[in-house]
Specification:
Elements lengths: L2 H16 L12 E7 L4 E10 L2 E10 L2 H14 L4 H16 L24 H18 L5 E3 L4
Parallel strand pairs: 1-4
Antiparallel strand pairs: 1-2, 2-3
Helix pairs in contact: 1-2, 2-4, 3-4
């Protein structure tokens, strides 16, 4: 990854961390899940409103590191308006990209701005920060009970 591209990615992550989109409660949510990363203290609640198999609203609350907050912010923007099947496919692509070996060529097609997280795979301890919101979203969409923990995923 070139230095200019890495700098751009860092800018996007910092922007979403400092000014998260879709942050706050969702009063008419059909489901909510809570996620926790005990290793670094990230904590997130994801609220979703699903109508006829399509996410019609998604927001998050919580606190966490820059990567965790940015991932939650960008995730909410990426999944809003999508069908559950589309979200499953997007989640799989995101997870495959972020958990790939640091030297592997990764597939970022279809990820849009989420591709900025490709560099996180170079820091294995940060992968859990980037995936916490995604695991929590999955729990919310499946009406799972209890707190999702990065130590169980």
């Amino acid at each position: 990854m070139t230095s200019d591209l890495r700098d751009l990615y860092q800018e996007v992550i910092l922007d979403h961390s400092k000014r998260p989109r879709n942050f706050g409660p969702l009063p008419d949510a059909t489901s909510t899940a809570e996620g926790d990363n005990p290793l670094c203290g990230d904590h997130v609640e994801v609220h979703v409103r699903v109508v006829d198999g399509v996410v019609q609203g998604v927001r998050f609350e919580g606190k966490g590191c820059a990567i965790s907050s940015a991932s939650a912010s960008m995730m909410t923007g990426a999944v809003n308006g999508r069908s559950l099947a589309e979200i499953d496919a997007l989640t799989e692509r995101f997870h495959a990209m972020i958990t790939a070996h640091p030297t592997a060529d990764v597939e970022t097609e279809g990820l849009g701005k989420l591709a900025v997280f490709a560099g996180v795979r170079e820091f294995p301890v940060r992968v859990k920060c980037a995936t916490l919101a995604w695991h929590t979203l999955k729990a919310a969409l499946s009406d799972a009970r209890g707190v999702v923990s990065t130590e169980e995923t």
